């Protein structure tokens, strides 16, 4: 009788555990679902704003140009005032977070960032990124502006939300002087060796001619 009661209670406990685990699995959200909800809520908090970008339409190989990017939340009519770059100003609407990340890339350009990639964007004025860019190759070249907003998740973790990239074509003209200088800088050892070898051969030939005359 005792054994029968023992197995009966044991069976009830097993059934209870199964039912309890089933209930918790149905009601408790998965970690990924929670993360997605948090990200969705943070995206809803993004403020409408503007981005300014002024890449030049035409450049020359070997010559530096200043390119600027500005982001603001105030829709300032004077957003383009005081720019140093000569490129045509382009302004588009974007969603703006508290922290924005901007990167300028191009395979056939030397690009020197003059600002930090990640910067705070306040509700007063604009935040600016600056770059000095120099084309290395003539022809139609592509430059890409990557923009993203940084979302701070629980426990201080960061999540990057990318905004569609801005892709621009730049017509780069040939610069013969720069091409010659660049060739010399890259191949100066070979050029020096060639000059020394040519000089040595010339000296040997002169010596031989002199000996032949003496004879």
Question: How widely separated are the two ends?
Answer: 136 Å
Oligomer: single chain
Overall average pLDDT: 80
- Beta percentage is 35-45%
Q: Roughly how many Å is the radius of gyration?
A: 34 Å
Q: Sketch the topology as an H/E string, one letter per element.
A: HHEEEEEEEEEEH
Poorly predicted regions: 23-28
Per DSSP E runs of 2 or more residues, the count of β-strands stands at 10
Counted by DSSP, the helix tally is 3
Instruction: Provide the spatial order of strands within the biggest beta sheet.
Output: 4-1-3-8-6
CATH architecture tag of the largest domain: Sandwich
CATH class of the largest domain: Mainly Beta
Assigned CATH superfamily of the largest domain: Immunoglobulins
Query: Strand pairing plus helix content: what structural class?
Result: alpha+beta
- Name the helicity range: 25-40%
Rough outline: elongated
The tally of domains stands at: 2
The CATH topology of the largest domain corresponds to: Immunoglobulin-like
Largest sheet entry: 5 strands, antiparallel
Question: How would you characterize this protein structure?
Answer:
It is a single chain. With 215 residues, the protein is of the alpha+beta class. The chain has two domains: 41-174, Sandwich (Immunoglobulin-like), CATH 2.60.40; 175-215. It has helices at residues 2-27, 31-44, 176-214, and strands at residues 47-53, 58-60, 65-72, 90-96, 99-105, 109-113, 118-120, 126-135, 139-152, 158-173. A five-stranded antiparallel β-sheet has the order 4-1-3-8-6, with no helix packed on it. 16% of the residues are buried.
